[in-house]
Amino acid sequence: MPTDLEKYLNDRRKELDVESPDDQLIWEGIRQGLQGSRSSSRKRRQWIRIRNMAAAIIIVISVGYMIVDLIGDRRPAVSITLSDIDRNLGVREQEYRKIVSFKEQEVSAFNSTDNMIIAELFEEIRKLDTIYAETLKDLNELGYNEQVIQTIFDTYEKKIYLLELIILENNKIKNHENEENLFL
Amino acid sequence: MKTKRTYFYSIIAICSILVTSVAGYGQGKNIEKTYRWTYNADQHVSLTFNNYDCNLTIHTWDKPDIEYAMSVDATLKSEEDAGRLDQFIEGLEFSRTSGGIEFNNHFWTSRVSVAGKKTMTVKGLKTIQYTEFNMEGEMWIPENCILHLNSKYSEIEVDNLSGEVYLDLYNDKLFGSDVNSDMKITAKYCTLEFEKMKNIEANLYNTDIETGDIGNLDIISKYSNLEMGNAGRLHIEAYNDKYSFGSTGDIRFTDKYSDLNVLNAGDVELNCYNSTVNISKVRDVDLMSKYGKYEMNKINKLNIITAYNDNFKIEELGDLGINESKYSVFKLDRLEHSLVLKDGYSDKIQIEQTGALKEVNINGKYVDLQMAIGKSLNYRFNASVKYGKLDINEEAMNVKKKIQNGSELEMEAIKGRETDGMLSFFVNGYDMAVTLTEQ
Amino acid sequence: MEETIHINRRVIEKCLEGDIKAQYQLYQQYAKAMFNIAIRFLNNKMDAEDILQESFVTAFSRLEELQNRDLFGSWLKRIVINNCISLHRKRKIKFEEIDEQMHDAADEIESGIPEIDPALVHTAIRELPAKGRTVLVLRALEEYSHKEIAGMLDISVSTSKTQYSRALTLLNRKLKGKIDAD
């Protein structure tokens, strides 16, 4: 007498066929076999699988590229710098940055925040940062444009000049403190 | 069947590769076209023109029309893109507002140029790729039109303008002719040239202006250069600027780190820091200054409210009045009437010649006065000093009082015949040095 | 059923004429079933695909030998099974038996198998040792007699019976384990 399990296996025989072959590959192998092809069917199926996978990947990448190309330009552009335009311009900008940094270090030691003239000079330097940022936006839009590039370098030149003025003003304060001490 | 499907997908894949790769090397499409717009407008129409990266020529005429011609020279990625852009530009319109007419040739919402790839996004259109895009414009407007010109990165030529002009410029070069009405200018990183102008109101940053004669000038400016002919009244707030004028009216000049050169001026108010001021001929000057350099040829009256570490070189001066001064140097070729120093500190005053002096009155500390006076001049001399150094012709004087108490000296003397209204010298202070040289 | 048979005869006739579409139709009709037989035998997808392909090539090539067109399915199944066994032999795969240790007499076949997912059953069958699995598949699923099985696998009838019994018990245990795990 069949057990329940045997009965189950018998009754639901067809339902147990849960797996599916790769029909496209198998059929192609059968066609090749019927045409008398001597190539290894497994190797041929593997090669076809790889080829089809590669084709699918290429399609996905191509479509993806087209989509990104379409929508990518609507995203805000990544801010470009002078070195993106021209390597030499980037080098020149780096040199300016070094000089500015050196002078900024020198003035950072000053304790002259109460002095209105010096405070105003610092404020001018801050305004130059705003001009620099605005001009970079124009660089994004216009690319290599002489005026845009000149404006960018001008902000550095002004910064250096203003920092030198701060140093000069600080020296004035020191000198006159000394002089007044002498006279007392 | 299945094999055909495989081949089909493979062909699609290959086509996709080709399409995406050819995208970078596809044949471009050119636009070389001039677009025109014409509008009826009355002579005094208000025109607002927004101009970007487009060299522009503005003509004026006596017709009641505005005409604008824009030449576009562009190379785009595809014929389709070129067609769409062409259509879009064709569809651009001047907009009529209650205020007047407006046109904007900055018709793209964004333009990006990154790593050699240039794209333009236009409202309502797909993003367009291009390799070259240039515009040039030419415009005809009524001569009396009220022109509002907002521009960036352009070279602009303008005919004579008779209506009011409002310029808002950035990184532009503008070459104008005569402006026969008032002009308001906001400009950064610009170069402006005009012939004759009327009244100007300006806000400038790193801008050069060269003109002939102008009317009145009201200006706030930084890092700018102005070279102008004759002018009316000048009100200037300057920072790191350079100014040059011919003959002007009254001047009010507040500045730091700036230069002012004027041939002839009316009355001048100066509030300066670290400035250089050269005025050939001026009536009266009121001055507050620090670290300034002043060269003036002929002044009626120089009234110094405060001076600090300033340097004055004056040829002819009527009256010199100094309220408060420190560390300053005064070199006068000729002083005509009076010198009054209320509170000096470590100042040096050198006067080569004097005229019909009425009063010399100096007070302070460490002041050094060297003055040449006429040999025949009669004067009263009063001194009340500590550690005074008086180099005067005491022998020729009638000393009425001289009390030396250690380092303190009190002295009253008269040279010549005492009269009412005679020149009086008063020296009062600490460590004061006075040298009177008779010539 | 009769209609299926008639359709089959017509299709087979066309296959004999070399009609590719008819061949594909037959393939579509039997491929999945044959594939699952092969995979349960070999417990390896790649091998099962090889066998499937080989079997259909053989069947189409030797279709003239099929006298009763209605029995194409059974005939094809036999080809698949023979090919599986040949592969085993060729590879000298150890035909692992279910030995007594695996079989615990206390594991009685329970009555009343609950409603269990056929996919789980299929997986559990694939987990059985080779010989027991083969015998179980041939007996319980493909309804071969122990004598036929013995002839196919070159074993004794009693071995076939023993392996079958043990396979059932082991399968039962596995299914119980899977149900409990859920």
Can you describe this structure?
The complex is a heterotrimer of chains A (184), B (439) and C (182). Chain A is an all-alpha fold. Helix content of chain A is 78%, strand content 0%. In chain A, helix 2 crosses helix 3, helix 5 runs parallel beside helix 7 and helix 6 packs antiparallel against helix 7. About 3% of the residues of chain A have low confidence. Chain B is mostly beta strands. Among the domains of chain B are: 150 residues, no CATH class; 127 residues, no CATH class. Chain B has a 37-stranded mixed sheet that branches. Chain B is elongated and about 130 Å long. Chain C is an all-alpha fold and 182 residues long. Chain C has 2 domains: 90 residues, Rna Polymerase Sigma Factor, Chain: A (Orthogonal Bundle); 82 residues, Arc Repressor Mutant, subunit A (Orthogonal Bundle). Chain C contains 8 helices and no strands. Classes of the chains: A mainly alpha (184), B mainly beta (439), C mainly alpha (182). Chains in contact: A-B, A-C. Chains A and B meet through helix 2, helix 3, helix 6 and helix 7 of A and helix 1, strand 7 and strand 8 of B.
Largest interface: A-B, 46 and 44 residues
Number of domains of chain A: 2
Give the structural class of chain B.
Answer: mainly beta
Number of helices of chain A: 7
The beta-strand count of chain A equals: 0
Shape category of chain A: elongated
Average of pLDDT of chain B: 91
Task: Give the mean pLDDT of chain A.
Answer: 81
Give the N-to-C terminal Cα separation of chain A.
128 Å
Based on the model shown, name its key terms.
heterotrimer, B: 439 residues, mainly beta, 37-stranded mixed β-sheet, 2 helices, 37 strands, C: 182 residues, mainly alpha, Rna Polymerase Sigma Factor, Chain: A, Arc Repressor Mutant, subunit A, 8 helices, 71% helix
In short:
The complex is a heterotrimer of chains A (184), B (439) and C (182). Chain B is mainly beta.
Break the fold down into its secondary structure elements and pairings.
The complex is a heterotrimer of chains A (184), B (439) and C (182).
Chain A: H1 4-11, H2 23-34, H3 41-72, H4 82-85, H5 87-108, H6 116-142, H7 146-183
Helix pairs in contact in A: 2-3, 5-7, 6-7
Chain B: H1 2-25, E1 29-40, E2 46-52, E3 54-61, E4 65-76, H2 79-90, E5 95-96, E6 101-104, E7 108-114, E8 117-122, E9 128-142, E10 146-152, E11 155-158, E12 165-170, E13 173-175, E14 183-188, E15 191-193, E16 200-205, E17 208-210, E18 217-222, E19 225-227, E20 234-239, E21 242-247, E22 251-256, E23 259-265, E24 268-273, E25 276-290, E26 293-308, E27 311-326, E28 329-345, E29 348-354, E30 359-365, E31 368-373, E32 379-386, E33 389-391, E34 397-405, E35 408-415, E36 423-430, E37 433-438
Parallel strand pairs in B: 2-6, 2-10, 3-9, 3-11, 10-12, 11-13, 12-14, 13-15, 14-16, 15-17, 16-18, 17-19, 18-20, 19-21, 20-22, 21-23, 22-24, 23-25, 24-25, 25-26, 26-27, 27-28, 28-29, 28-30, 29-31, 30-36, 31-37, 32-36, 33-37
Antiparallel strand pairs in B: 1-4, 4-9, 5-6, 7-8, 8-9, 32-35, 34-35
Chain C: H1 2-16, H2 20-42, H3 45-61, H4 72-91, H5 118-126, H6 130-141, H7 146-153, H8 157-181
Helix pairs in contact in C: 1-2, 2-3, 2-4, 2-6, 3-4, 5-8, 6-8, 7-8
